[in-house]
Backbone:
């Protein structure tokens, strides 16, 4: 019941949902409750709660003992706590009427509390700003991505090949149970946006390279392409969320984004060192003197 108590404390659901949520968790854990259900007063850290549940699941043979299998299983548990997409969208829009900041504050908090962003792993990352003769330089070493699981790699060779979802950025990931070569996404939530007349979505990155690292993704699985529409979409996004920054990777291999098959941008609530750099040389293009 510790996980149920955690979800209630984080307001992932209300007191009306306690028994429904607890019974869903019992079902996932293949457990039959005994006696009255009582929530603990002292709630351990989420990492400890999930570790205990995973150890029990592995010992009883309902979860394989591998990094990928454990991640699939505990994401399923957290998905049982996470509010449904429609509820999240309604709350986001209601908060947006207060202010864009209130909306993203709510949405980012949800990503943390639902364990979509695994904060206990993010703490392993190393981040610092290094002064150089050219100005400050942001440096990040990502240590939070799980290591490659040899068991999962071997199992994936014999697994049935599927093209659903087509990539990690497709909207179909929302609620997807995952597989050994594709992460579970029962606890991810997306906010629909309209950019340049098209359907796009806002989500957060599970690997936080900087504060409130978000991803803005196309509703269609189309390849990255930098053109005039890119800049219109970027401008519309920061008009909606003026407290955020947003940009696009190049649409080229090696120097571009890691997923070139799906058009997307990256943004967040962070001022990069480059944005604070002074002007070294001023250039003016005829007809665009005000830029």
Residues:
């Amino acid at each position: 019941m510790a996980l149920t108590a955690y979800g209630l404390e984080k307001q992932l659901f209300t007191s009306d949902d306690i028994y429904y949520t607890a019974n869903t968790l019992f079902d996932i854990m293949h457990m039959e409750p005994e006696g009255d259900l009582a929530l603990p007063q002292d709630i351990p850290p989420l990492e400890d709660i999930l570790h205990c549940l995973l150890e029990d699941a592995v010992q009883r043979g309902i979860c394989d003992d591998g990094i990928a299998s454990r991640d699939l299983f505990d994401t399923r548990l957290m998905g049982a706590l996470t509010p449904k997409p429609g509820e999240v969208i309604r709350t986001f829009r209601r908060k947006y009427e207060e202010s864009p900041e209130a909306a993203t504050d709510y949405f980012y908090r949800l990503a943390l509390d639902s364990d979509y962003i695994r904060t206990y792993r993010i703490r392993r990352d190393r981040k610092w700003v290094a002064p150089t003769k050219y100005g400050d330089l942001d440096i990040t070493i990502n240590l939070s991505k799980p290591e490659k699981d040899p068991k999962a790699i071997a199992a994936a060779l014999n697994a049935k090949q599927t093209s659903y979802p087509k990539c990690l950025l497709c909207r179909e990931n929302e609620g997807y149970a995952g597989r050994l070569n594709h992460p579970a996404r029962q606890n991810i939530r997306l906010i629909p946006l309209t950019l340049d007349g098209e359907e796009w979505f806002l989500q957060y990155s599970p690997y936080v390279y900087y504060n409130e690292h978000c991803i803005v993704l196309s509703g269609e699985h189309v390849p990255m392409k930098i053109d005039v529409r890119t800049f219109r979409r970027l401008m519309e996004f920061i008009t909606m969320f003026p407290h955020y920054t947003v940009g696009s990777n190049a649409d080229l291999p090696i120097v571009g984004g890691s997923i070139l098959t799906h058009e997307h941008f990256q943004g967040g609530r962070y001022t990069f060192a480059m944005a604070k750099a002074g002007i070294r040389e001023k250039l003016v293009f005829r007809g665009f003197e005000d830029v």
Summary: Residues 9 and 260 are 40 Å apart (CA to CA). The first helix runs from residue 2 to 9.
